[in-house]
Design brief:
elongated; 14 strands; disordered C terminus; alpha/beta; 7-stranded mixed β-sheet; 466 residues
Length: 466
């Protein structure tokens, strides 16, 4: 656009005033200095958002994969809406108040851009409005940012007058590694019922929910299932289209998407296909594990023995998984110890296992919350004198912790030494996470995370088979 004549630039600005897609093109060029690489899903989102501005849609849900420009388009909508109606009042929320404030500030920077001011000269920022999470226009407009689940006191979205007057926008209300918690998920739904619905200034004020699907009963699923009794316009944009093509080929080719689907089927179904399903097995594809007769001789391997420790002997197992990383990047399950014993015998077995493994095998043990957990870790560390021992609290739910390892299993990057323990492990993988036991998976997940340098929740590691 830097080659446009003054008359052409005025024409583009006039188009940008009337059309959100043109506004996006204009501001992208102004702020990024290169053309906006539009795709069909961008047009679908901007069309839906413009329908909200024009009053044809009052409740809108957009489901789209992560990192597919949704937040950029929502921020552009706020800036454009303020340009069209400078007294508009917006509340913008996300799962993190910090992220919400950052997006709010980015909109403020857009409103201060010279090209924006040339397109919407009537929009002026108040001099006393400098906060990242709250700023105003001289016409009475407002942008207020808040974290989903938090209180919003003294602020409302929309105007009590005809025409567009702002909106309540909810951008990814759930944190991915918390959404499988019934409590955390319900907290967001309660927040919507108790806070969001009371913070719209008029029944005509639009509410926009734009998010990746993470669970059958996440906020979008609850609303679409009739949670509030309202009718919602639903724009669903799966990464793989009905005709088998990629939604955004420039971002992910269909071959890349299929590899991702193979590696993490449960996560891919929700976040990328917008069809979350209950995890009724299928997270692991253990038939893709190659069984070998022995550990390769002379091969340098980094070894970890990860433990999952039972707190009782009433049907619970203590499991210790020995996992190694081969020079070519593949992983080798070399051994599995699984016992049902009281604390004293359990600790003795753990120490005997460490001695059998040798001093080159690192030992990783979980730390339970509270002082008792710290005391137990201190005791075990002393028992393992001479060995390298690491400990950490478990973080995230079992599925989230297991997914990085499952990704490697599912693309054929995991080997297993033949042993009497193989069948029990394979069966546990087949049934995980709804089987009777998950101790071996927990132990392997801990060892895998430690091999990669610590806690790697949600890691999409090395999806291509070696």
């Amino acid at each position: 656009m830097n080659e446009l004549t003054p008359d052409q630039l005025r024409a583009v600005r006039a188009l940008g005033r009337e059309d959100l897609a043109w506004f996006n093109r204009l501001m992208f060029w102004s702020r990024r200095k290169h053309a906006w690489q539009r795709s069909a899903h961008h047009d679908a989102i901007t069309d839906a958002l413009q329908s909200v501005f024009e009053g044809r849609v009052r409740r809108l849900i957009i489901n789209i994969p992560p990192r597919y420009s949704k937040t950029e388009l929502v921020k552009a909508f706020i800036a454009w809406g303020l340009g069209r109606a400078p007294d508009s009042e917006f509340i913008y929320s996300s799962y993190s108040s910090r992220l919400a404030a950052a997006s709010s500030f980015d909109v403020r920077v857009t409103v201060g851009d010279p090209e924006y001011r040339a397109t919407f000269p009537e929009v002026q920022l108040r001099d006393d409005s400098q906060a990242r999470d709250e700023w105003r226009t001289t016409a009475g407009g407002l942008v207020y940012a808040a974290g989903a689940g938090g209180t919003i006191t003294g602020y409302g979205a929309g105007k009590v007058r005809p025409g567009f007057g702002g909106a309540f926008i909810i951008d990814d209300p759930h944190k991915a590694d918390e959404v499988r918690s019934d409590v955390m998920r319900q907290n967001v739904i309660d927040w919507y019922q108790n806070t969001v619905q009371s913070r719209v200034n008029s029944p005509e004020t639009p509410i926009i929910v734009i998010m990746q699907r993470l669970h059958e009963q996440d906020l979008a699923g609850w609303l679409l299932g009739g949670g509030t009794g309202e009718e919602w316009t639903h724009v669903c944009l799966p990464a793989i289209q009905a005709d088998g093509s990629s939604l955004w080929p420039e971002k992910h080719s269909i071959e890349e998407l299929r590899r991702m689907e193979q590696a993490m089927p449960y996560t891919f179904a929700g976040q990328y296909m917008q069809r979350p399903a209950p995890a009724e097995g299928g997270l692991f594809k253990p038939d893709r594990i190659q069984t070998i007769d022995a550990v390769p001789l002379g091969t340098p391997i980094s070894w970890i023995r990860g433990w999952d420790m039972a707190s009782t002997t009433n049907g619970d197992w203590t499991a210790g998984a020995k996992l190694g990383r081969l020079p070519d990047g593949r992983f080798l399950i070399a051994d599995m110890v699984r016992v049902q014993e009281g604390p004293d015998d359990r600790d003795a077995i753990m120490l005997a296992t460490a001695r059998r493994d040798g001093f080159t095998t690192k030992v990783s043990i979980p730390q339970d919350p509270g002082q008792a957990g710290k005391t137990q870790v201190t005791y075990l560390t002393r028992q393992f004198a001479g060995f390298t021992v690491v400990s950490s609290p478990e973080s995230g739910d079992k599925i989230t912790r297991a997914e990085p390892l499952a990704a490697q299993v599912n693309v054929g990057n995991v080997l297993m030494v033949r042993g009497s323990w193989n069948d029990a492990l394979i069966e546990e993988m087949r049934m995980f996470p709804n089987g009777a036991h998950d101790d071996q998976i927990d132990a392997l997940s801990r060892a895998f995370a430690e091999l990669l340098g610590g806690n790697h929740l949600g890691l999409w590691a090395s999806l291509a088979p070696v």
